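Purpose: get a first structural picture of the assembly so the mutagenesis plan has something to point at.
Setup: two entries, given in the order below. No constraints added.
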Amino acid sequence: MITVEQATEYVAQYAWPKVPQSVPLEDALNRFLAEDIFSDLDVPPNDQSLVDGYAVRATDFSQRVFREKGVEGGVELEVVEEVTAGNVPASRVESGRAVRVMTGVRVPDGADAVVMVEESSWQRETGLPLGVVHFNTREVVVGQNIMPRATSVRYGQLVLSCGKRIRPAEIAVLAQVGRTDVRVFGRPQVAVLPTGNELVDGGFVPGPGKIRNTNGPMLIACGRQLDADVLDLGIGRDEPQQLRNLIERGLSADVLVLSGGVSAGTLDLVPAVLEELKVRQVFHKVSMKPGKPLWFGIAGGNKDDSNDDRSTLVFGLPGNPVSSFVCFHLFVRPAIRRLCGQAAGEAAAPKCSALLAHPFEVTTDRATYHPAWIDWSETGPTIAPVLWHGSGDSRGLADANALAIFPEGARYYEAGQRIFCHPLD
Amino acid sequence: MITVEQATEYVAQYAWPKVPQSVPLEDALNRFLAEDIFSDLDVPPNDQSLVDGYAVRATDFSQRVFREKGVEGGVELEVVEEVTAGNVPASRVESGRAVRVMTGVRVPDGADAVVMVEESSWQRETGLPLGVVHFNTREVVVGQNIMPRATSVRYGQLVLSCGKRIRPAEIAVLAQVGRTDVRVFGRPQVAVLPTGNELVDGGFVPGPGKIRNTNGPMLIACGRQLDADVLDLGIGRDEPQQLRNLIERGLSADVLVLSGGVSAGTLDLVPAVLEELKVRQVFHKVSMKPGKPLWFGIAGGNKDDSNDDRSTLVFGLPGNPVSSFVCFHLFVRPAIRRLCGQAAGEAAAPKCSALLAHPFEVTTDRATYHPAWIDWSETGPTIAPVLWHGSGDSRGLADANALAIFPEGARYYEAGQRIFCHPLD
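Result (structure tokens, whole complex):
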């Protein structure tokens, strides 16, 4: 049996970003950049005021070259212009003068500092925006409250790299550099096919020997959570012809996720049907718990989308819901993220470390992924495996916000030991 | 000026879950439960096999009550039935006999353990599912590989609580207990209105004194990230009548998010127009950096939706993109999450702690939220404030996956000090 790390490697070898497409900026959220983004301007475009206040010459404060109209310890300057947002200054700031400026406007020529409006009081002359401003402060430093031109971004600078996920901050940067459209990697289609004669559709009361189909809705939700285009194939029965037809439909997608039918049961037909359909097995069985029966293979050749000649990644997940979930998280999620265009090093399931909140005994030799709760406490994260009755217990999974990772080897873990975990979305 | 904690309290006082609605299970992902969910069945419905194997009597192994057909150290039993998924056993397991069972099927009467198929070899009789099975193991414990009835969930048990976010694991539990529809809290509408004469639409090259509208697309993306129904109001100009009309439209939503026009600039008309429209100010200005000019108020009264008599929460965010982003994350996001129905204690922006990766100096007295990068290293999370040029620098925000929180008070922080941070979505 191969290890989780080996299985991860195998899947990564077959998962490549889809062909890029152009989308309007408003549809780009949570997609992955398929181009490097360069700035078409300086930000700010000129030396700009960071506050609402007065553009002044710092020397008017330090050298007391100002008119003191009998005010104790203050500085008074003549306001010669007011520049509101969207406008540019017309005048130059000479000694003894100031220009009223709003946040973000260009600092007038001659000025080398801006004093905040909160540090001043202004007597307007009747009917005019002009008048005399009195400052309470004398501590004015050259450059104060000024953001020099191009501090944030320089014309031509690389501002976002190909493969980056587009979050609200990236939307802001894209809007800032004038992008109304952006090239992103294509959105993968993910077909979902739970299999098994024991499955009944939600809403029906399961008869003897039957259970409700939980994997179907869960795996569809897992795909949607990743913004994939999900194709719901219904329920596959343990009957070769029907299974073959459904799997054939699923092979039109970028990823086909089956569940059930991959163990050692006598009706576990999935591997045989996949072989018939020329899906090449890459591996079957991984040394992990839950999830050991995982099957992974590749169907080659062209797809309907003639621009996209990649193959279909086929995952046969175990039928137990928690096994299915864990395998999805560890193997299918990174594959989908990679198809979406996430950079290779970043597509893996996110990992962090935490201290065990209570002792825990691992009784299997296989690497174990146990539903757990991370507490982001003041003194650093701790993790507590939740009460969980094995791979059929999806109830326990709903109490978890992480999977605790116990590496290969049966072992007793003391409270306070540091272990790795996968936080869950 | 009030503190961030006080402002958070004020907002929480006005943010209540929307009126619940029923949605199909397939539309429930990422919504919040508006009902407690109880199970309509036992899971598993009876004692069930956890593996593919043979249901046996443990005493047949320990007491050697079996037929040894000359096989060294092995145990042989007669297979009297095979039960595949979806079917129920017809026979009882007597001493010397076994029933072939698949994962998930009911354990036949008489059997008290299941031995994995991997630990056996089976000689079928020609044309029959029956035959003799040989086991390599003699270590069989009562209850082995059997999940007793109702281990995971008992009939009538509370399985999910009101206010819980519906992730794929919750979808699995809802499907398991037969829910095809589920009551969730309503989806809030969030209106977005950036203001300012300096703003030009994306795609245009800004003339002198102008900048591109980055807050609009960014705040729309922030709302969509939370699955809110976003109403894009375009750009508001610093002109009272047009601003009044747009704000009036925005007041039909559950949340109105304005940006710009709330500082001390002479064209900062937003607070005055809001007052005219009978939006009651709750607070203006918060002791934080960036984000000090934040304005928050409430417009009362009934809405179009006659079932929903809640008021509109109005946020006047500062015009600088990073100030806007930080205020959205700290105040608007928790409000939206609460309207979506998230439990009161869980709606706040998520927080964790990490060790400072390098020394950092805070020069303001206000609480500081600095874009930063959390590294989830093997030895616990570390956080490095990113190079960031202040509230106009959205470029720096794109390099961040967290906001580092420095509490009130100018201070020098040593590398290795533990600080809190808000991880970003």
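Chain B touches chain A through 110 residues (CB under 8 Å).
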